[in-house]
Predict the structure.
Amino acid sequence: MTELGRLEDLPADYREALARQNLVPLWPSLRALLPPDKPQLRTQPTHWSYKALRPLLMRAGELTPMEKAERRVLVLANPGHSLEKMQASAAIYAGMQLLLPGEWAPAHRHTPNAVRMIVEGDGAYTTVDGERLPMSRGDLILTPNGLWHEHGHEGSQPVVWLDVLDVPIVYYLEASYHIDGPRQAAQPEQAVYRSAGIVPTPFFERRQRDYPMLRYPWAQARAALETLAAAEPGQEPVQIAYVNPETGADALAILGFYALMLRPGQRLELPVRSPAAVFHLIEGSAQAQIGPQRFVLREADTCCAPGFTAVTLANESTDAPAFLFIADETPLHRKLGLYERRNP
Ligand code: GTQ
């Protein structure tokens, strides 16, 4: 690879004349723009301990009332992107949200897509597009782009969930904004899509919706993983994707969502792929080796892996399974023609 000319090689008066015309010479920056063989990764392998963040989140509950927060969230910020950018990876935002008993997070809708993975507490609910969706540990709740959503809490203990949004990429595209709305008149929970494959057809007509299923109960996802593991007693990966039950496409357009079960003692080498990913431990305990970094994941811990990086997950227990929730950038990479899988 030939050495290219540097900016300092150019006379100062020439550089100033270029800048005055809003012009930049490409060759001093060409190698940074198009690095050899693989991208220059800003995203760093990063671990967020729930045990360490929980007291800080509870303190936010004392320090900042809902009227002053609207959404009381501590963002899991990747230091490789500088913390104030509030991104876990190029396209993924992740945050831990706290709602205290009796609190209400008012209705709004926005262009980024969101999901919630419930971490602890009972009695909270999210109303999405008029459907009231109860929040229990491990449930995945969608808030697709453009749909009204608000959160309420009628239980007696704090409720915490993990928010995952595609806001970094939507913001970068200068397409991120929100609109506030009035409190929604909520229908009973999941009136339309209570279970995949069974839909109401009044007078033989179906109401078509872009996002027919808004809540994926953990009890169902966990049972599916256990059934898969029992059917395949070897060491094949046991993994499910959260999809749109009408089209089979990814549940949302930009980020992909999955659940993975590690059998007792199982060690799983994931393929090296272009999309970055976030791993969140729902149940059990596991180790994540992400490039040169090794993290121990306890329950409700979250970590982030850049793309183009080897990831190995291992169940720390030899007698209990471990369950992980994964969010990644695969749908985005596939749609943009950027998806790659490499042999290590
Ligand atoms: O709950 O609607 O973490 O609008 C960031 C932005 C959560 C939400 C976040 C949001 C929300």
Remarks:
- The domain at 46-202+210-342 is CATH 2.60.120.10 (Jelly Rolls).
- The pocket of 2,5-dihydroxybenzoic acid is lined by residues 71, 73, 95, 97, 110, 114, 149, 163, 165 (CB under 6 Å).
- The two ends are 24 Å apart (CA to CA).
- The chain is about 15% helix and 30% strand.
